[in-house]
Amino acid sequence: MQKLKMNKNIDIAIIGVGSTSFGDLFQYSYDDLVREAGEMAMKDAGITADELQAAWLSTAFPEIGVFKGRSGMDLAEPLGIFGIPVTRVSNFCASGADSIRNAVNALKAGDCDVAMALGVEKLRDRSPQDSIVKMMVELSHPFYQKGFTAAGTFAVYANRMMHEYGVSREDIASVSVKNHFHGSMNEKAHYRSSCTLEQVISSPMVADPLTLMDSCPTTDGAACVILVRAEDVDKNKHKPIYIDGIGLSISTGWDLPFFDSNHKFLSFQATKDAAAIAYQQAGITKPAEELDLVEVHDCFSIVELLTYEDLGLCKIGEAKDMIRGKATQLGGEIPVNVSGGLLSCGHPVGATGVRMVVEVASHLRGQAGERQVTGAKRGLTHNIGGPGAIASVIILNNEH
Amino acid sequence: MSEIIKYDVAFPEFRMSGQVLHPKGRNKSQQTVCYTDEDLITLSFSACSSILNEGHVPDAILFATSSPVFKDRYHASFLADLIGLKQGILALDIISTARAGSDALLLADKLIGSGHYKHILLVAAHVDFPPQGDEYLYSSGHAAVAMIISAEKGLAEIVNTQSFSSSMAEDFYYKGEKTVYDPRFSRGTGFKTNMQEAWKKTDPKADQTKQLIINSPYARMVLGMIKKSGFDTDNQVFKDSIKNKVGHTGACHALLLMISAMENLKGSVLLFDYMNGTNVIQFNINEAPSIAMLSDLTFTELDSYQDYLKLRKQGDFTDVSYRSEDMFSSEMLMEREKDQLLYLKGQECKSCKSVFLLKTTRCHHCHGNEFKEKKLAQTGTVYTLTAEHYFPSSFPPVNMVVIDLDGGGRVTVQQTDDMYPSEENLIKIGDAVKLVYRSMMEKDRKPNYFWKCKKINAKIKNE
């Protein structure tokens, strides 16, 4: 595999971040969400719309939302930014991270000096049965994997993990309990209540063994970052966060694991590959020691456990020990999803990857309030999409 | 002259007794009932599959039914494609009455006799739902039969075939409306007169005939005539043991009676198959088949009329509020991908032996680019699975099963025939399963068929 090496001479900094609240935002249109996140990030960066030279818009599923986000135009119009290139990015759940990756690459190539990456998704105008479930029933391949919902495509991993590694139902549910506890401290999360193990296990079954509370909701929301080359950072004006590494990898495909016996449903190769790229760029060899906090793509609770192993935060088969030992809880050795994760924040698909970067940046700036990871210097964000097909890993640092 | 060299039968998993239908219904009366994803085509496919696997590639296919699902389209051609027969062969539908099964056999015999055909695949199927509420008055069992008729030596030799037409039908449909004549008139003028003519012209000899099969609900009307010809009606008239087990199976029924005879007798048998005319088929049973398929039929009994209604209405979706749409483009997609989707032809990497069902030009594991075709097995072991509670179905949850096939390759499919969860159909990691071909989406108006799976257990034999 080709491993891209980030040129240290052209490091990239995030100088502005912004995010809307996530949730049932019936009072906000798609355009309202774009405006709020975009303007918040530009204000944070201390720039005006006139200074932007390029932008990337991440929306994954216009057709199951409000039919907005099919081109870069849907970022340009609400923000009134015209005359510059704006590109729409769609790459399943890694769309947000990929919009940032595209902005980073354009800055490095010298194609622009100030770039915006904005992720937005508006899913709640339709019920989940009319959006996500409908997509799986009607818009996916008529035969391959027909019968699955999104939850089911990850539940098959859960059952194999339980069979192979002795992961218990309680271990899986504990992820939800932990993340909902974290979410109770996040004023922008979709769900802001703690819950008990029993509540998770006894909530309605979605795809065995995953229940409703093992599953993230569909959500409305937007998040935005403004990026420049590190050399252009004005330390008097900005509180920059540096990008140490970005990895994006498509490693299996949507259908392949379900039609090729070599796939063991015990890990996501895409995460391993994306992490390898990002770790190499960032010079990370012992992630558990070198990272202070991690945001992983807990669309379903089982995914967080799988990701501990795929990111190398623990050895293979030991994810259950991490959750049992509370190593990933706020205050633990390596806090994971202190935002509340997708389980609490919800999952506006195109926005999630950007939201995670905004979250980690707030910790690295020391602005995360009640859920602040003390002394956080380096953090990681992770997305996985299309049941394991595509993953992104971004490593952020508050030092340069 | 031709021979029946192979046959197979297919019945649905589910059956209901007369008592489930109506308080007046008899418990002894049983009818097999298709599952929500079964129909004339899937039952026919199931009956054809195993006899084709062993060779004898047919050069013609005849399809017989009185309950067609297509109009302006040949069932025989559709089925020929499903089972992988080459395009452009003789494919005919014989669709009118329940006599269609023996009509097709008669025609097959003549075609083989002409010397133009070597092996003819004969398929008969019956899937008919009587008017709702009146089911207990009918006995409509769902079934399919497949036979290979050949010039080669086989299980039974067809010695003579004759057909005697009649203009008189006891009840029939005219322009969609049911017409019933007074039975005192119609059965005498229709059945009895026609049978007498057939009997007279074929002139059967009691000492040269082992058994007579009279396939008609009015058979007893001609017992006197048979007795007069010197037959021992107590011992020489074949007992229909099929109807009580599965119901009257329309176009399949005469063929099922022949199979039943083949599994139990040797020697000369004469079939009189009546329905608006009589077919007379004289056949000699050479040897008993290695497996007696009709002797050990097992079914899952339906609990209630409500469950039966769910099966016949193709699901009411009461459990999940969801409006189903026709599946997009599936016919085009199936046409261009049927090597993989239908015939399960995978690719095996020549260097690392990885098997891919989905087409690729580069091995995902060793990056080799040379492959050989590999036909995947229809049995395998469960690798992992889940029960989907939110996918629309009349019988949620939909169990999704990832299966590593015997000999290599993997598929992921739905479990079927599992409306009553039990120990026998509870699938776990490591269980043995087999693939079955079923309709994919409930309420879908287009024919959309794909593989599903069933657990293999002690109850399912010889498959």
Give a written overview of the molecule:
The complex is a heterodimer of chains A (400) and B (463). By secondary structure, chain A is an alpha/beta fold. Helix content of chain A is 34%, strand content 18%. Chain A contains 13 helices and eleven strands. Chain A has helices at 30-45, 73-79, 95-108, 132-139, 150-165, 169-183, 197-202, 269-282, 287-290, 301-310, 319-324, 341-345, 349-364; strands at 12-19, 54-58, 86-89, 114-122, 205-207, 210-211, 220-229, 241-250, 293-295, 378-385, 390-397. Chain A has a nine-stranded mixed beta sheet, with helices on both faces. The longest helix of chain A is centred in the N-terminal third of the chain and has 16 residues, at 30-45. In chain A, 63% of the residues are buried. The mean pLDDT of chain A is 95. Chain B has ten helices and 22 strands. Chain B has 463 residues and is of the alpha+beta class. In chain B, strand 4, helix 3 and strand 5 (90-94) form a beta-alpha-beta unit. Chain B folds into two domains: 2-294, 3-Layer(aba) Sandwich (Peroxisomal Thiolase, Chain A, domain 1), CATH 3.40.47; 376-455, OB fold (Dihydrolipoamide Acetyltransferase, E2P) (Beta Barrel), CATH 2.40.50. The chains are: A alpha/beta (400), B alpha+beta (463). The A-B interface holds A 129, 133, 136-139, 141-149, 151-152, 155-160, 163, 204-208, 210, 255-256, 258-263, 265 and B 320-322, 324-325, 327-330, 333-334, 341, 354-358, 364-365, 383-392, 397-398, 400, 402, 404, 408-414, 429, 440-441, 448, 450.
Which structural traits does this protein have?
heterodimer, A: 400 residues, alpha/beta, Peroxisomal Thiolase, Chain A, domain 1, 9-stranded mixed sheet, two-stranded antiparallel sheet, 13 helices, B: 463 residues, alpha+beta, OB fold (Dihydrolipoamide Acetyltransferase, E2P), 2 domains, 5-stranded mixed β-barrel, 10 helices, 22 strands, 29% strand, globular
Structural class by SSE content of chain A: alpha/beta
Identify the biggest protein-protein contact and residues per side: A-B, 39 and 46 residues
Helical content class of chain A? 25-40%
Strand order of the largest sheet of chain B: 5-4-6-7-1-8-13-12-11
Q: How is the biggest beta sheet of chain A arranged?
A: 9 strands, mixed
Specify the helix fraction band of chain B: 10-25%
CATH class of the largest domain in chain B: Alpha Beta
Multimeric status of the protein: heterodimer
Total helix count of chain B?
10
Q: How many extended strands of chain B?
A: 22
Major sheet: arrangement of strands of chain A: 3-2-4-7-1-8-11-10-9
**Strand fraction of chain B:** 25-35%
- What is the straight-line distance between the termini of chain B? 31 Å
Secondary-structure element order of chain A, as H and E? EHEHEHEHHHHEEEEHHEHHHHEE
Domain count of chain B: the total is 2
Assign the CATH superfamily of the domain at 8-127 and 218-230 in chain A.
Answer: Thiolase/Chalcone synthase
Please identify, by name, the CATH architecture of the largest domain in chain B: 3-Layer(aba) Sandwich
Please report the first level of CATH classification, the CATH class of the domain at 8-127 and 218-230 in chain A. Answer: Alpha Beta
Structure class of chain B: alpha+beta
| % residues in beta strands of chain A | 15-25%
Q: Would you identify the CATH architecture of the domain at 8-127 and 218-230 in chain A?
A: 3-Layer(aba) Sandwich
